[in-house]
Amino acid sequence: MKKVNYFLVFFLVLTILMPLSISESIEVENSEVSPENSGYKSIQIRFLALDDVDKYNVYFSQENFNRTTDATLHSRILVQDDISSLGKFSSQNTLSACWFSTDGSFGENSIQFSYKDDWGVPIIPSNSTNIVYNLVGLQTNVTYWFTVVAVNGEEEDIDTNFTFRASTEIKDFLPPPLDKNPIYLSILLIFASVSGAFYYLIQNEKNNDNKLGYFYSYPAFLLLCILTFYPIFSGFYLSFTDSTSSRLGDEEIVWFDNYIEVFSESSFVRVTLTTLFWTVTNVSAHVIIGLCLAMVLNRDIYGKKIYRTILLLPWAIPSFISVLVWRGMFQPSGFINQQLGIDSFDYFSSTGTALTIVILVNIWLGFPFMMMVFSGALQTIPKDLYEAAAIDGVSNFNQFKNITLPLLKPTLVPVSLLGFIWTFNMFNVIYLMTSGGPVVEIGGPGGSDILITYVYDLAFPGGYYGLAAAWSVIIFLMLFAFSIYYAKVSKTMEVTN
Hints:
CATH architecture of the largest domain: Orthogonal Bundle
Structural class: alpha+beta
Low-confidence stretches: 1-30
Strand content: 5-15%
Strand order of the largest sheet: 5-8-9-4-3-11-12
Number of helices: 14
CATH topology of the largest domain: MetI-like fold
Distance between the termini: 43 Å
CATH class of the largest domain: Mainly Alpha
Mean pLDDT: 79
Helix content: 40-55%
């Protein structure tokens, strides 16, 4: 037992992670929150503009905070010199509207609607002096803390933070009603497809009892298809619109603009390669470690049940609890630094350490599942084969190569595919450990971001639903193409062997 404990401590010490940038909150004079002017789940904030600012990042939290990493990025206000080609917000009912003035006043006669880009992001001219902004998507009767961070270049200026506290205490007004036509069209297409398929099956079925079975199963199958395929159709539809958090009822069709935006982003290749590296590394480690441990535990060794129980603990404990424990241990004042005698080393400050640690944590969480799957598969292999091979003088390696691997292939292939898809879309480990950080570029994916976590940030709290839907469709097509290719390769290998 002591050896096992030392091994576990050594494993903990080897794990490494990444922290978040600290920025002090500073109250600024002439800043105010106006709940009386708030609308649908919104707070209106007012603050003075600053010189030499490229954008303002708005963070919020239900608890007081002094680090932006302890809050959530709500939205951004861009600052631009050339605004001649931009359109403006044009309606007083616009939920996420932004206003500005250039005369140093918040008066109604001097304030005017800000400009906006194709995604509805507010843009103000560089000569603005005063800014008014509605923060939407908030709960009513809940106190929030906000900070507006001035950003110069790629770095957040920690000396120019504005801090607010407010709550939405007035009655909500409803946003514009959603366009129901896409919903009705999707349901109609599903209904027509399912009905056509069942009609074809019934017409070609000679057994009357089977026809009656088709008739009774039709309603359940139809409902299942609607619940399954409508979200898919809805996602495809949103990917061709300019839908945002403030434009869910009046979005417009932009066709392939979202997809062009995705592929034109400089960070597309980087976050895709990070995702592939993350996935391949984790799945390979899960399979290798799980198979090795399963083969060891398949032998008659003393204390096998105890070892198996200990190795299953990472899988038995809820993952979000384990991840938060690991994150705490790798904080600058956490367990790891204390044991190593290091004074406040920041494991979260660089992409290399952040990505390394999050991979190690996910390996620790995932190998027990593979171990159990392979343990069950190994039980089905007759021991007579190994005994006969041993009598013939076959080495252990050749036994593994010619007996174990071929007979494990029916298990290895599907479980590897399943592990690849799971890991490719693994959200909770990265988001709870690093939130995708550290920051590589403002507005882009962080150093440990993979596709799914970056898409989540685009949608929530970014509010770029159309763009996030386009990313989601691309992720789906990637996994679909990989699944088909993997299935073909696996089938070819089975036929060849």
